[in-house]
Amino acid sequence: MPHMHPLIRHFRSLPTVDLLIGAAVIALGILEAFTVATSYGATENPELWWVGQAIVTGVLVWYRRRAPIAVFILMILAQYAWHRQGHEQCPVWQLAALLIVFHTMGAHLPLKPGGAWAVTGILVFDSGAVDHRFLPFDEVIFLTVIFGSAYVTGLALRRYLVRVHRMAERAARMEMERERRATEAVAAERTRIARELHDVVAHSVSMMVMQAGALRRTLGVADETNPGQVAVLSGIERSGREAVEELRIMLGALRMPQEEALPQPGLDMVSNLISTVGTSGLRVSLAVEGDPVRLPPGLDLSAYRIVQEALTNAVKYAGESEVRIRVAYLHDSLEVEVADNGQGAGPALSTGNGLIGMRERAELFGGSLEAGPLPQGGFRVRATLPIPRGVPMSEATS
């Protein structure tokens, strides 16, 4: 885009309506200067000095919203200068400009200051201070009515705009309230569906597990020479118990915010998470202990979110320190730990929603969470999450 001249950029910042009205005042003033100047007391047509005054008046109209009081005063002074030239009558373009600035006082100033300035202006004109002559009563009434009407129309416009603004704000609040209620209704419906699914499906799957277990024990006693059938039934039992556990986790997950119902990352994305905070001044290291296993999706997501929340707090409060992330796959549990050696994020975690959210995620899977300052300085968040016997990642991907 080419560089714009500052003067052009300034004019483009003015309201288009004001620019058009000011231009109309200038055009009308020039037209009267070349056609009817003698009818207002001029010696000849054209009266060229009128052109300059018309331009000044039109420019004042351009700035009537930015500085209404200053424009109002300057317009009255311009009228005073006009009458000092020996003209008794006010041409159409000057009268129109005066009515516009009286209207502006009502439309763009509060009632008390705007009304005070409007009354002052009317008294200045009615007293003959501008004309330097005693005005007849009918002319006083005329000036009072037209200038007062112009101010009142501006005042009515201001009240209308204020009412429209309030109605828009009210509509926005009602829309936000409607969206909030709709979100709450969706969340309540999701929770109801989750409970129904859990009650119905979990009962049926539990019965299947019990029957498979009873049949496995019966076959194990009756036919010890066919271990294949026993192994199949054991797999059915194990899969059924995992399904019941996933249903319980689903009930908790459906109570979470709706955006977390979408496909979410897991612990395999922690390295990407570290790269996003690499420019914050933290030195982040990741250590994985044990053999990674395939985790249930809900457990994998919650472990990732715990690491993410703890790392976010470290970025905010630990300063330029070192952060250590440890993910340990133990025999029957998963440990995730985020520790820093800086000043730590203790106050923010202990009083904010971060620790509460991480603890809820851990407890959802029957786990626990510990968070607190370290003796040598810094802060540590450690979550322990029990997991079923998982499948090693090497086997899961083979």
TrEMBL record:
The chain crosses the membrane at residues 20-42, 62-80, 92-111, 140-157. It is an enzyme of class 2 (transferase). Keywords: ATP-binding, Kinase, Membrane, Nucleotide-binding, Phosphoprotein, Transferase, Transmembrane, Transmembrane helix, Two-component regulatory system. Its EC number is 2.7.13.3. It holds the Pfam family HisKA_3. The keyword Transferase applies. One of its GO terms (molecular function) is kinase activity. It catalyses: ATP + protein L-histidine = ADP + protein N-phospho-L-histidine. InterPro entries: HATPase_C_sf (IPR036890), HATPase_dom (IPR003594), Sensor_HK_TwoCompSys (IPR050482), Sig_transdc_His_kin_sub3_dim/P (IPR011712). Residues 298-389 form the Histidine kinase/HSP90-like ATPase domain. It comes from the Bacteria. CDD domains: HATPase_UhpB-NarQ-NarX-like. This is histidine kinase. It comes from Microbispora corallina.
